[in-house]
Amino acid sequence: MPNLKSAKKRMRQNVVRHDRNVQVRSRIKTARRDMMEALAAKDADKSAEALRTYSSVLDKAAKIGVIKKNTAIRRKANAANNLRKLATVA
Q: What is the pLDDT of residue 90?
């Protein structure tokens, strides 16, 4: 356990940040799962809506620093490519 006042505060901050990061990562995974299920069902409208939601969640996570900006960009690009593949197949 920390003895210094600043170390105690840092420990409290780390707990709050950890909880927030877990929540945001869970939101990302849920949005990705919803998008993949829509793609697997070959539903273009539902997939497009899921992609918008997934992109929004990724942007918000990158904005608060849970994931890096380029990671969010890469994941959005891959998701858009998957949707594009579905559009060309259908």
A: 60
Of 49, 75, 47, the C-alpha closest to 61 is 75
Q: Return all residues near 8 (Cβ < 8 A) that are at least 6 apart.
A: 2
Distance from C-alpha of 47 to C-alpha of 70, rounded to nearest angstrom? 23
The CATH classification of domain 5-89, taken from the options 3.30.200.20, 1.20.58.110, 1.10.1270.20, 3.40.50.11220: 1.20.58.110
Query: In the chain, where are the structural domains located?
Result: 5-89
The tokens for 51 are: 């992609």
Quick one: CA torsion of 59, 63, 64, 67, rounded to 10 degrees? 60
pTM (2 d.p.): 0.88
Query: If pLDDT is split at 50, 70 and 90, which confidence band does 86 have?
Result: confident
